[in-house]
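Title: Prediction job returns without error message
Component: structure pipeline
Severity: low
Priority: P3
Assignee: unassigned

Description:
Job completed but the reporter wants confirmation the result is attached to the right record. Sequence as submitted:
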Amino acid sequence: MPTEIPDILVDSFGRRHNNLRVSVTDRCNLRCVYCMPEEVTFLPRAELLTFEEIERVARVATTLGVNKVRLTGGEPLLRRDLPRLVERLANVPGLSDVGLTTNGILLAREARRLREAGLERINISLDTMDREKFQQITRRDDFDRVIEGILAAKEAGFHPIKVNAVAIRGFTEDDVVPLARFALEHGLEMRFIEYMPLDAGRLWEREKVLFAAEMIELLEKGIAPLRPAANQDPRAPALDYDYTDGSGSVGFIASVSRPFCMSCNRLRLTAEGKLRNCLFSLEETDVRGLLREGGTDPEIAQAIRSCVAAKWEGHEINTARFIQPDRMMHSIGG
């Protein structure tokens, strides 16, 4: 019997969307200065999508060509019994890749359960190898727990493990080489992310962005020369480089200096069930209302299609037209 070919989510610029990022909570156990304020009012539990609702959206999305799901937050491991959701998603026909982005604080206790539930890939946020600076950035003293979580993920058999670091000019230059060395020592994939305008205090300025080119220069001086990696995925957000000494690789998400908008394949579902076609989107599509008011799968599919169809050309960070969204990063989903 022939396999049914799903519809394809293509926007008006010809970009095909197969990657759904799902925020399971807006709550976080850190207060990173580039993401959220110290005092936050979080969503009531009743407003969050249930695991069953998330699974239903994922099932409908696979009929439209989505084959990758990444769970985010806030901090997703604050959502009780998250491995149960991972297991449900891992069993959705058509989903070939279920991933997770976490700050790692609770990972040591959950890594093995997540792996056994079917989690394929894991990204862990860590901006510095300096304990005092970690506390400055996150407003919490949990550096050791993050390291413990990374090592637990290794022990549980996750590979590759990606470590994500936000790079801010005048603040994190000294962290680039130590982070990269730590990643090489432990067989991790280090990825540096240019500072983006999603901060709570709206203090972002282009002058505060530590650009990928500058980080490459730091790494070449501190570790070894770099060359662009062969066979890169043109739709992946990271620019990958290999160390010429064969020691490993490193990636850069250069959202500001080298925007990848024209190859973007992502859409996002917030914790309370709003679809967003861009991290910096100013408009959202309500899916929770459909889910809770008797909406059919075709109606949910149409909402997803319409959201993708309305996607703009790009975020315009580098233009005078850029408007920072009202939502902060923790409430959108990383």
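Comment from assignee: result matches the submitted record. The radius of gyration is 19 Å.
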